[in-house]
Amino acid sequence: MNTQILKKDILNHANQCHPQESCGFVVADHMDGIPFYLPCKNIADDPIHYFEISADDFLKAEELGEIIALVHSHPDS
Q: pLDDT by residue (tens digit) across 28-50?
């Protein structure tokens, strides 16, 4: 697993979403088991202070592989 690429993808997504919280999953691919970051849309009513992932994004992650981590940012800290 290349943790540097994974970390870069997560931080890029957090920067793109700022000042809102970013959210996504780290998924182990069904085919080769290699983890990747799947960015999700934050559908929370107050996305600056909270995050919520849609059921559709959750199902998409499960279809792509095994969810091994849930990721979200804390843009104010």
A: 998 898 999 999 999 999 999 99
